[in-house]
Write a structure and sequence with these properties.
By secondary structure, this protein is mainly beta. It contains 1 helix and 6 strands; from the N terminus they run βαβββββ.
């Protein structure tokens, strides 16, 4: 299992972890967010959320 905290400034690391399952970040009211396809649809990832890559290749987001 790999874990990565999304800081709002580490999109390149997120892209390496998630590959083509992540959409480019967008900014709203001074905060950065992005969307990750967890296999159950896209989930919004906010600054401070942790992206978890499970050993079986699935992604999940810890708020």
């Amino acid at each position: 299992m790999l874990r990565l905290l999304y800081t709002g400034t580490n999109y390149d690391e997120v892209k390496r972890l998630c590959g083509d399952r992540v959409l480019a970040p967008y900014f709203c009211m001074g905060f950065s967010m992005l969307s990750v396809d967890t296999g159950d649809g896209f989930v919004t990832v906010n600054e401070g959320d942790t992206i978890v890559l499970e050993d079986d290749g699935t992604l999940r987001i810890e708020k």
